[in-house]
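User: what does the whole thing look like in 3D?
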Amino acid sequence: MNSFTYTRVHNAREAIDAFLGSPASFYVAGATDLLQLLQEDVCAPGTLVDISRLPYRDVEAGPRGARIGAMARLTDVADDEAIQRHYPLLSQALKETASTQIRNAATIGGNLLQRTRCLYFRDPAAACNKRHPGSGCGAMHGANRINAILGTSDHCIAAYPGDMAVALMVLDARVQVQGPNGARVVPIDTLHRTPGDDPSRDTTLQPGEIITRIDLPANRCAGTCAFVKVRDRATFEWALASAAVGLEMQGHTIRTARVAVGGVGTVPWRLPHVEGALAGKPLRSDTVAEAAALSVRGARASGQNTFKLKLLQRAVEEAIIAAGGQS
Amino acid sequence: MTESNQPGGRRRGARALAEQALQAEQLGDNDKANELVEHATHIDPDETITTLQEQSASPLARVEQASEFAIVLSVNGQTHELIVDARTTLLDALRDRLHLTGTKRGCDLGQCGACTVLLDGRAVNACMMFAVMAEDHEILTIEGVAANGRLHAMQQAFIDCDAFQCGYCTPGQIMNAMGLIQQGKAGSDEEIRDGMSGNICRCGAYPGIVKAVMTAMAEVTE
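Assistant: Here's the predicted 3D structure for the full assembly of 549 residues, as structure tokens:
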């Protein structure tokens, strides 16, 4: 681990000033991802700006919406009774994330910004355009079993690893951000960036910006939602494929569907083709399978991750059936 | 104002000696502490006094080197003042500085759970937190679990249920299990297995561990 200095701040203004005032600043809150990156020399900060004490830890939820402080720990949100009642999809995704210890420490804002688990990104000796722009991509023809099949480019196939962001795509989350130029709102589906020809930037956040809160509109799918996560072991593992689904039902007919997937895209991935194919259709195994087959439209496998093409379709299918099965 | 450090300084002379004196005092070596203070005062009395005052009073006292900080950690009900590099993890501080070696180092990446401690009553990986960030939190390690010469119910249950072989992962297992019970998450075999998944046991004592947590849970809720 390289040597760095540390600054503790108590409000957003102090944080932004401290961040912009030093070279190579990193914000730190739960530290659970950053410490792994530092232990393995994936990044080398000059200053850590500790924002864990910023006053953004409250969690409020009800029938009309939710406000989730970015410094709330994953446990705080997963166990919140109002979240469980009005946003069970979010609670479930969080409960299936990481381990007890990590959920007790990791923050909501940090979880959104966690970095890829791509083996080549996490190994400073390997070629990686995300970690070291222009060095190439070792994963493209390498050990890419966990890598992405959607949203990839010729420069990067690193998968976005998170679960919560996938649920938030279905829930239409709006990410509140504070930055040097004031506050702004970032819709969840524009927070993460596909790699294109600049994989080094994971998100659309600007230098110094801090996630302060996540807002959710009223949820009409609280009783008809499901999160399916497929992984190499039963718990404490990242998704090989995950699917979050929210349905609005009219009897046995799907009125509208919202479908997002994780572990397969370079960003949390919404599936509008699947949603369109489900709208107005009866909830039957044949119609669901037909719609789920569209999950892989535009997908591109890279060798060892070819199994994800089938896995993704089946995860989506299972999640749709599970969501509708509750109605 | 941020409680920041000033870069570019050197940690030499009177200040460094005064800091070493504080550390010696912490370790109970008062003779060495007095000797160091005397030496420091001889070099620069003002700086010696300032250093000693700063470090006992301020919540995040500055040390000259940009990456070093004087902090106060509250562990097992006792407060400890120490000077740490910003890189020092809570695990390093507990083991190497406070000599509380019951908390074990396994992977240093948050994957094995051997370093689990309770932070304000919740289980966390001590390797996944910087010591400077642990200020103002109550830390409980395995050394603080037994009380009045009696093992905690969870420790006794681990012994009674044969919940370990080599014992290396056991302090972490016990701390996470205690956290789970405090959070009300040890209600069933399935819940315990899920909640304990962040603790690896290479001896494979899992059935005994689950049984121990169930046993202790029953005792606590009686």
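In plain terms: The first strand of chain A starts at residue 5 and ends at 8. Chain A touches chain B through 34 residues (CB under 8 Å).
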